[in-house]
């Protein structure tokens, strides 16, 4: 056999610097289990189609299984000269079982082989990420149930806007991560396509049974076009896009946790086990976990941009540029998985300072809209009511008072139709509980949302660890 599996056509050995430059084994060796599983299925199909003999198939499969054991036991040697995990396994198989190993590559190419391995890897990782997302959603539901009575200021433009329930705020994240879960499930539909049999780009001249291979590997579909099968990286781009959106959600959550844990807000205390100190300032307790999650969001978004840029001008079909896809993919899977895991563990341990939150929600004229609503109920058009309340706010600001701290006489100077009942109308909890529209912050509405979320999560558990 030639030194390399493909060097029969070449007169010179590959330069060592080229071997090092072009090798991907440090990146793609994590695909070994999928490569071996795919090869075993390919062997079974070749034997079923009488392309190789049953005895040859059994020998190949036994050799492949032994190689898997060697890798998992740390007894396998990796070498840049063999470029990638596929060539490593095939070269080792040749050493173990002799020339019958050369039968393994019948009716396939490294092009469809790598596409298969990546799809199998990403299918499994996407399912795991979807399951993690369901777990994170459960954390938000549990936190919302625990803190159903806690009031906090809701914000727009990072300015106090209207009072809301903390549970309502937390359930907003439930909805965000529910969409992330749905996006991951959508990704799975496009990932779950079996490319083996496309070979280099044109298909093969053997009577292969692609549907049989797909069944062995639990693929829902078989790729319909051999050129597309080896050149398609849409499924990775789509996953990276979904992962980027999810990381943006985690980053927005991180930004709030960082703000809320500051002395200026004082809304939460992060658990000591998930914070760090300063090397020079003994009093410091730094929100490193949320900051790192926020920072790593940039890497994930960068990975998406990197792959999109790499793919944007590639002609069909396979190009060596595409070897770089796994750098972007593996980094994203690792980051997203780690961020979800640490938040699932950390969030339940956060202490919410209910008194600070409620105090913040009771100042800053957060009941101004409710005063306008009161005037509308008394017969004033909303735009006119808006202007009247604005004047009242300006008046109260000059006297360092809140609207509900003004006297009835002061209030009626702005609108004679104001009566004594306005003071009860402007209490914080009542302003919250009037928001009974679907999706609103009223306590009963939020409880209904929590119950619906629990039912949704229960359905997920009934059919598996993630929604189908």
Write structural notes for this entry.
With 468 residues, the protein is mainly α. It has three domains: 7-106, Fumarase C, Chain B, domain 1; 111-199 and 220-353, Fumarase C, Chain A, domain 2 (Up-down Bundle), CATH 1.20.200.10; 360-461, Fumarase/aspartase (C-terminal domain) (Ribonucleotide Reductase Protein R1, domain 1). It is 60% helix and 4% strand. The chain is built from 19 helices and six strands. The protein has helices spanning 16-22, 25-28, 32-48, 54-72, 85-97, 110-146, 166-191, 210-216, 226-231, 234-260, 288-311, 325-346, 354-361, 368-377, 382-398, 408-412, 422-425, 428-433, 443-463, and strands at 151-156, 159-165, 193-194, 221-222, 268-269, 351-352. The strands form three sheets. A two-stranded antiparallel sheet has the order 1-2. A two-stranded parallel ribbon has the order 3-4. Strand 3 (193-194), helix 8 and strand 4 (221-222) form a beta-alpha-beta unit. The longest helix has 37 residues, at 110-146. The chain is elongated. The two termini are 48 Å apart.
């Amino acid at each position: 056999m030639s030194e390399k599996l493909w060097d029969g056509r070449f007169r010179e050995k590959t330069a060592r610097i080229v071997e090092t430059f072009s090798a991907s084994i440090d990146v793609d060796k994590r695909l070994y289990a999928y490569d071996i599983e795919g090869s075993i299925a390919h062997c079974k199909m070749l034997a079923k189609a009488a392309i190789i003999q049953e005895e040859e198939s059994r020998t190949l499969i036994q050799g492949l299984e032994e190689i898997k054991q060697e890798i998992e036991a740390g007894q396998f040697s990796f070498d840049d000269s063999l470029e990638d995990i596929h060539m490593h396994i095939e070269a080792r198989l040749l050493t173990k079982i002799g020339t019958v190993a050369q039968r393994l590559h019948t009716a396939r190419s490294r092009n469809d082989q790598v596409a298969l391995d990546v799809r199998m890897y990403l299918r499994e990782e996407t399912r795991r990420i979807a399951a993690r997302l369901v777990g994170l959603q459960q954390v938000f539901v549990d936190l919302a149930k625990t803190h159903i009575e806690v009031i906090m200021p809701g914000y727009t433009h990072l300015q106090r806007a209207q009072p809301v329930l903390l549970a309502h705020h937390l359930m907003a994240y439930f909805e965000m991560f529910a969409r992330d879960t749905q996006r991951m499930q959508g990704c799975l539909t496009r990932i779950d396509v079996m490319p083996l049999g496309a070979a280099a780009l044109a298909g093969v001249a053997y009577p292969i049974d692609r549907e049989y291979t797909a069944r062995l590997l639990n693929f829902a579909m078989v790729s319909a076009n051999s050129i597309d099968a080896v050149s398609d990286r849409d499924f990775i781009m789509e996953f990276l896009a979904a992962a980027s959106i999810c990381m943006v959600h985690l980053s927005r959550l991180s930004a709030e946790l960082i703000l809320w844990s500051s002395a200026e807000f004082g809304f939460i205390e992060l658990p000591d086990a998930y914070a760090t100190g300063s090397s020079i300032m003994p009093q410091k307790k730094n929100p490193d976990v949320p900051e790192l999650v926020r920072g790593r969001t940039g890497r994930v978004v960068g990975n998406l941009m990197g792959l999109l840029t790499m793919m944007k001008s590639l002609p069909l079909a396979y190009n060596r540029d595409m070897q770089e896809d796994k750098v972007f993919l593996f980094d994203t899977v690792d980051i997203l998985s780690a961020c979800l895991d640490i938040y699932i563990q950390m969030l339940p341990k956060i202490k919410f300072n209910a008194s600070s939150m409620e105090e913040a929600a009771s100042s800053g004229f957060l009941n101004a809209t409710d005063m306008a609503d009161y005037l509308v109920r008394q017969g004033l058009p909303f735009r006119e009511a808006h202007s009247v309340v604005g004047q009242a706010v300006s008046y109260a600001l000059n006297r360092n008072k809140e609207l509900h701290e003004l006297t009835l006489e002061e209030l009626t100077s702005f609108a004679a139709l104001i009566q004594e009942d306005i003071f009860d109308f402007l209490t914080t909890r009542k302003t919250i509980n009037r928001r009974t529209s679907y999706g609103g912050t009223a306590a009963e509405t939020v409880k209904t949302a929590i119950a619906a979320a629990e039912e949704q999560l229960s359905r997920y558990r009934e059919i598996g660890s993630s929604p189908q």
